[in-house]
Amino acid sequence: MSPKQKALVVNWSTSQDLAKTILILTCVISDGANNISMIQAAEVGISISSEEGIQAINSSNYAMAQFHQRVVSAVYECMIQIIEDTTGMYIWMG
Prior knowledge:
By secondary structure, this protein is of the alpha/beta class. The protein contains 5 helices and 3 strands. The radius of gyration is 14 Å and the shape is flat.
């Protein structure tokens, strides 16, 4: 999948009729500069430092030196808490 196609998928997911009735947020995790458009299209972009340079890190909301599941889980939990606090809705992910 090309970088542009990845960004289109992110944009598509939030532009559908379903997004008009429920809250849809996108979070992407990337380790490369070729995913900058996808990172910018998402509400939350997480970049993992790599040899491809600093471009992806500069485009993301969060950056980490290496992939670590606990960090990703913490960002996910933070997103859920923000949604629940601002909307009063309970979020369940199955």
